[in-house]
Amino acid sequence: MKKLYTAGLALFLLAGCGQVQNEDPQSTGDKTKDEQTDEVKDSVDKSTSDQNNEENNNLEEEPTVEQGETNTEEEMVVEKTPQYKVNEANWSIEPITDANEKVVLLTIDDAPDQHALQMATTLKELKAPAIFFVNGHFLDTPEEKEIVKKIHEMGFLIGNHTYSHSSLPDLTQEEQKEEILSINKIVEEVIGEKPKFFRAPFGQNTDFSKELVAQEGMILMNWTYGYDWEAKYQTKEALADIMVNTPYLNNGANLLMHDRSWTNEALSDIVNGLRKKGFEIVDPELIQTTI
Ligand SMILES: [Zn+2]
After folding, report:
1. Which residues surround ligand 1, an ion (CB under 5 A)?
2. Which ranges constitute the DSSP H helices of 15-163?
3. Is the separation of the CB atoms in 133 and 108 below 8 Å?
4. pLDDT tens digits along 67-81
5. What backbone torsions phi and psi does residue 160 show, to the nearest 5 degrees?
6. Ligand 1 centre and the CA of 222: distance in Å?
7. CA angle, corner 34, sides to 30 and 39, nearest 5?
8. pLDDT per residue over 33-46, tens digit each?
9. How far is the CA of 208 from the centre of ligand 1 (A)?
10. Element (H, E) at 266
11. What residue ranges define each of the domains in the chain, with the CATH number in brackets?
């Protein structure tokens, strides 16, 4: 079984949302990711590392003790101090402080279709934070908007997964702009704030979309691994098993799941299994953003 996994796994890394992009994902897949990353790396790296340095310096100079001693009321509205960042080379979550490195990030894409609210309820009961990446075509009725509002009120972050889940490289710049900005506007109307995180459908970005996402102050992320779009993992048992026992479960793994019935059913076993292996479910609000 292990060998089978290894042969097929790399494929899953890039094949989010049900689309396989490469015949040889191990090599070309990685290259694609690198290429995508390198293009923005120079500009982004500079600002990110500068921010990190500032962040670290601040932390060293001003221990959090001061906050605790002074004004607890103000602290309630102060944003959490970033402790992690998205590694743009492999989309994992890395500490920028001395925070626990044995963490995983949970993300639920293509929400809110049928199960997002139930999934949020399950995660809330387990005290497991997550990002729900939403699409505009799942947000065109008052009922759907109400669901996203509830999910947000339950403490989960709402991310931008574009309006209609189209492949961005197939669109004109104007269309890409519409796909990305229209859903930001809708989310802001519904929950009172714009998304801080962006994930392109199928993980397919363009230079234009990357630039626009940065301009909008969003952090772009793909994922480390996910399996729920593969037919053989579309049962509670199979999915819970592979999500916890995959060789790709490493520190900072960025887990891709979807609003699907089998994922909904497997969710508590996945969270419990990850925790049993010693992983903490990271709070996405602790991830550094430009907002
Ligand atoms: Zn998707």
Report:
1. 17, 109-110
2. 30-61, 65-69, 72-77, 116-125, 142-153
3. yes
4. 444 444 444 555 789
5. -90, 120
6. 10
7. 155
8. 333 334 333 333 33
9. 19
10. helix 261-276
11. 2-286 (3.20.20.370)
